[in-house]
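User: Structure tokens for this complex, please. No commentary.
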Amino acid sequence: MKTYLLPSIKITIILLVILSGLYPLAIAGIGKLTPGHGDGETVQYKGRVVGYANEGQKFTKDEYFWSRPSAANYQADAGTGSNKGPTNADYLNKDVKGRIDTFLKHNPTVTKEQIPAELVTASGSGLDPDLSPAGAKIQAVRVAKARGISEQQVLALVDMHTEGPLLGLFGPPKVNVLKLNVALDELKK
Amino acid sequence: MNTEYLGIIFMYLATVALAIPLGKYIAKVFKGEKTWLDFMAPLERLIYKFSGIDPNREMNWKQHLKALLTMNVLWLFYTFFCLLFQGHLPLNPDKNPSQTPDLAFNTALSFVTNTNLQDYSGESGATYYTQLYVLMFLHFVSAATGVAAMMVVFKAMKDKVTDKLGNYWDYLLKSITRLFLPLSFVVAVILAFNGTPTSFKGKDTIIGLQGDTIHVSRGPAAAMIAIKQTGTNGGGWFGVNSAHPFENPNYVTNMVENISIILVSISLVFALGYYLNKKKLAWVIFGVMTIGFLIMVFPSVIAEVNGNPNIAHLGVSQPGGSMEGKEVRFGPAASAYWGVTTTVTSNGSVNAMHDSMMPVSGIAQMFDMMINAFYGGVGVGYLNFYIFIIIAVFISGLMVGRTPEFMGRKIEAREMKIASLIALLHPFIILVGTSIASYVLVHYPNADWATKPSAWLNNPGNHGFSEMLYQYASSAANNGSGYAGLTANNIFWNVSTGIVIFVGRFFPIIGPVAIAGILANKKFIPESAGTLKTDTVTFGVMVFAVIVIIAALSFFPALTLGPIAEHFSIK
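Assistant:
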């Protein structure tokens, strides 16, 4: 056993130093050069940090674009999905249906068939920062009315904040909800 | 939607394009030829000197296994005690508590074995010390263990080799210094520049735009996420893994991470071809694996893109497919593609919640883990495939009346016994585990435990059964993904999956290494007209048939009760 145990202990110690000590420190050093300095990129409004660009937030007021439903209630230290299966009748008929009804109540000009499913289903992380362009635009009438501005103005803002597919080729387009809502607030002043 | 399809097609093609040169490079490293990473040599010499290891001492297969098992037992103890006392150890800015003994038992086994089933959430259940010095450390060394074991088998397959099968420490160290560390470094830097945190700062507290107080978990995550993908580990920094917007911030990182998931596993197949100078055999193996992989990808992608009929019945539209449990920035196609890549390779990281995916995806993901050899985990995927090759050689030999030979060695009763046992062990532990859990759930729903069995499942009916079946399939395959709705952090699940994980890791390593070692000691018979050719399409079909028959016969009944029944219940 000694032929194997002693070298095992020693190589474990030195690998701990290299892999667990030096490697993450080197990455942390390089991380300092990134836009968020390795702490995560923040979004500011009126000189105050109002959130992290990559982490979704809960928006309930009519004057803001709503983020997707979240099983974690947007707690950024305890993200989770609903983990409800596609045939879970309880979940579909209570939770999802409830979200549809709430959405229709707050957006009376919208019909049920126009609601994209992402607005009534919970995201994987519970912290989804994005909406699809369709998911944002469907809320434009409500937001415009609540703010007393024109729908065109709101839609233009959505277009401005829409990020297309990567290189125009890969993946879905998206809109960052927090940045969009900050832009709305900036419009006001 | 088209850009979503383009995204996954590009990912796959890029993976193969990178895997071929990487495979060539890996073969060179282990043949001891010159490579551009030779500047690591002084560091390696220093490590050998410090550890008192002579990298040139040749070992036989038994010595290899002794070294492998000694190290793994050592890591098991180290991990268990660190997790048990992590609350008192340094680098704990969020003041997270220590793990309970059953959770530490499960986590230790799970990470030592490259499984990374996580019954805790990284934000609250681990500290920066245990994330880096225990879990990420194991990401590296457990991946290297798989590659080292595979290298023993590669070496044993060489012509005229007997019992001098290289040095275990050398294989282990070189797969870290020449493969996993450089690769992870590149991936980690890409992640860092796309927004994944790297600093050691703890939680941040901010007031959101609408006035809510928000606590944001952070930490040096990029370093860990990189090796989690390249080493087919899958254990993430955050609880929701690569669905988390810090762990996987955008489509670029999603591509890089997803390519990393299968890159090394595929390149090791090509490495075999270059190492043994049998490129045709490598292409046959790659072909069989790829067909198995694609058969799983197509239905899953189509099912997720088409959306959930039950959601359609509620009257809303599904332009973005089935979005429950998915993230907008990835979309349904990339989520389904990830789901299959992560289950074929025993990686187990997720970018969407598998529990909420369509039953067709569930069938694909579970079947992937039940076969566990289409690409497979780094090193161990090939070891599993090797078992199927041995069985296929034997059966074909009997069918055409030729002596079953592989790589110039006769396959006889002893090797076949080992191969059969290993092939049957996998269904045995999955099905027995699921049966026991189902039995307990049905007969003792209100047993007086901290978590009553009646509270285990998050979904009723067939999907609930799938949650249990998935958990054991994932444990046995050392995958580590889960139907996360299952309440798994309690004694029953921590202990039972811990045992399944252990058995599912070490026997499938010991078996192939033993077979290869025994074969290497047999007389080498040069190829002749009477030899059964193994580098042909015919033989590829044979191996594929063996895999499908073993897996289909073993698992079809269980799958019928779970995702297959659920699929047909959707109207």
